[in-house]
Every structure is written in C-alpha cells, then in structure tokens.
Amino acid sequence: MEIIKGRRAVRNFLDKEIAGKDLEVILEAGIWAPSGSNIQPWEFILVDDPVLVKKIKLVSPGLYGLPRALIVLCVNRKRCEKGGKLGENMAVMDVSMAAQNMMLMAYSLGIGSCPIVSFNKLALKQLLDIPEHVEPLLIISLGYPTEWPQPPSRRPLEEVVHVNGYGEPFKR
Amino acid sequence: MEIIKGRRAVRNFLDKEIAGKDLEVILEAGIWAPSGSNIQPWEFILVDDPVLVKKIKLVSPGLYGLPRALIVLCVNRKRCEKGGKLGENMAVMDVSMAAQNMMLMAYSLGIGSCPIVSFNKLALKQLLDIPEHVEPLLIISLGYPTEWPQPPSRRPLEEVVHVNGYGEPFKR
C-alpha cells in the first residue's frame, strides 16, 4: 500500500542516468501483468537514446520534462486475434496493467514515471520503425524526480464504492 | 517485485470470509491508480452478498470457482466527457490500472483474485441496478485460494523488449 499510495506522476526529472539493471527490473515487472487467455499481446520499446527521447518529445504533447528513458507500450494485433471479439479490449487492459506494474516497480526503486497517451501515433511509429500491425498505446516516461509531487485529490471511497448495487453507499 | 511476480489468477477458492477491513484496503488501492487529467472515471461495485455473487456467476462465463466477493469496475461515461477524444481510451486504462492495484493489494494480503471480462453486460447491469451512463468493464473475483497456481509461461524479455527501435533486440 505504501508503494501504491506513494507513486506519483512525475514531470520534472534530474539529469541522472538510470542503471541498466533498474530498467531491466522495470521491464520485467511489465511481463508479469495478468493477460487474458495468456495472450501477452504486448511489445515494449525501451528508448534510452537521449536524441531519440527528444525527438519523441517533439511529437508528444503529453510528455512533460526531459525524462532519461521512455518505455513505449504497444499492442501486437496479430497476437490479439486469438482473443476473439474480446481480444482488442483485453489487450488494452493487459497493456495498462503492465504499465501500472512498471510504474509501481519504478517507484519502489526511487524512479519517477508518468503515463502518457497524448502523442502523434504516426510520427512515433515512424521514429521507432514500428510495423503496421503493432500499435503504440501508452508511453511511460522514466527518470529521477527533482521532487516528489504532492498527492492529487481523490474521490473518497464513500463516493466511488457501491455495495451490492449501484448507489448503495459504502460505509467504512 | 515479489508481489508483482507472485500474484496469480486464482480460480478455486476456500469457503472463508474476507474481513471487511481487507476489502476496504483493496478498494482503497484502486482509487490510487493513475488517472489521465485526474478524471477518476471509475465506479466500483463491491459484491459481498453470496446470493448475488451466485447470480452474477450465472451470467459470467469467465467467472470460475465460487469467490467470496467480487468487485465490478465500471466507467462513468459522464466523467469521461472532460477527457475529450482521448477520454474513453484513457478511462479503460485508468480502470485497468485500478484493477491491477487491487489485485496486487489482495495478493499482498494473501487473497487470490482473477480479472474477468467475459460476462453478460446487460444482465450484470440489471442485477446491480447500474444506470445507462455507467459501463461495467471488468470484474475482479476475490477469495482465499485453495492453492496458489504455478506461474504461467511468459514471453521472455528478449522477445518482448525492443531497444530504440522495433526489432532491435534487448540484451540483458
């Protein structure tokens, strides 16, 4: 719970390298996400070349600050086909859960992260030679934070949680 | 990493109650997921009434075993509107990340879980009085496992991860 509640979206990064071993552990956390029918539709592109990070930043309005690395989480459509009509939807969920594993893992290593969905998909595909059947869904930025932001406001459990029927309030 | 790698999809449950305090902690983990533009599009319906769990099981082919509780994770479409054209996609991601937080939290409490996307959405909405603008996306089953399953096979990092361009292999 400490890790889950402590993680923050970080948008200001120190100019400090992330060790290769730490990046590997973060990527490894991703592949242990749940995957519907164990399809594992994901492809992860690690970007640790600073020049490429800057190029991607230019086509990604949602990318703030200058992170030291990015992970681009993609869905491989060819793998989704096995999932039938639920395949596409499950793939988005699988990739999102993998992203959350990565961000929690990063935080537990003292590394900040931010999920980014606002980017030019076509430009990103060109920059990273991503083939037709692979779709980038989400970018995670990574770097040591200049500071850990304050927690965002959150709707309380009493508002979000319903018990045994919609509108039946949750009591602690 | 121990929690991330240890979590399993559990489909056989003991007939053992989950303490209310533990359910609260699991739900609390959900509201600390990242949320694009802090929209928090989620509504969570906790189902701990055994009769209702059985009724939901009847309309959910993806629900195995007899869990002691369910959490139905929904998107509130009215909240999504603030997100513009990316709103719907972000909402699926937010809810998926909340689900992953919940499943990791459950595991850290010794409680098994399984994400379920195969259910009759209309029947579920009727059983839980879910209004028109709220869409159930995912069910998480919860219960103490009869045993922890073996880890599923996973595509290795060398296959899943590309470095600075698609197809450029990752080396440990």
Write out the CATH superfamily name of chain A: NADH Oxidase
**Total DSSP helices of chain A:** 7
Strands of chain A, count: 5
Q: In sequence order, what are the helices and strands of chain A, one letter per element?
A: HHEHEHHEHEHE
What is the fold-level CATH name, i.e. the topology of chain A? NADH Oxidase
Distance between the termini of chain A: 18 Å
Spans of chain A of at least 5 consecutive residues whose pLDDT stays below 50 are none
Largest interface, and how many residues on either side? A-B, 68 and 68 residues
Strand content of chain A: 15-25%
Strand order of the largest sheet of chain A: 1-2-4-3
Shape designation of chain A = globular
Which range best describes the helical content of chain A: under 10%, 10-25%, 25-40%, 40-55%, 55-70% or over 70%? Answer: 25-40%
Q: Architecture of chain A in CATH?
A: 3-Layer(aba) Sandwich
Structural class of chain A: alpha+beta
Please tell me how large the radius of gyration of chain A is: 17 Å
Largest sheet of chain A: 4 strands, antiparallel
Average pLDDT level of chain A: 96
Summarize the structure.
Chain A has helices spanning 2-6, 20-31, 50-58, 77-80, 87-108, 121-127, 157-160, and strands spanning 42-47, 69-76, 112-116, 134-143, 161-163.
